[in-house]
Write a structure and sequence with these properties.
The chain is α+β, with helices and mostly antiparallel strands. Helix content is 50%, strand content 18%. A three-stranded antiparallel beta sheet has the order 1-2-3, with helices on one face. β2 (14-22) and β3 form a beta hairpin. The N and C termini lie far apart (58 Å). Zinc ion (ZN) binds at residues 15, 30, 32, 34-35, 41, 43-44.
Length: 116
Amino acid sequence: MLYFTIESSSGDKDYEVVAVREGDGVRMSCECDAASNGMHCKHRINLLTGTPKEQKLTSGNPADVAVLRQWIVGTPLEMALSTVVEMEREAEALKARLSKAKKVLGLALATGQMSR
Ligand SMILES: [Zn+2]
């Protein structure tokens, strides 16, 4: 069993994250609202991807993050995590393209001309 505390995005509190190895998977709990509502949360994803950089690892145990990552190597959980990480990357790229396309449209509507 591994214990972590991660600072919330707002920095005003810490969330406790507990990881338990079960079979070839890992059960993880987090005290945040998303996890409490049965959703995935960035605190657990960041720990699983080994990048708890957005929020501070206030438990000060980066070696345990490495242990957690080792637990999921080659498991279906690792595949599910990869899918989410890849889709988030695609969503970010799509958001950037959408933003550019909206600027082009906004300019076209404001000027009556299409920029080339
Ligand atoms: Zn969380």
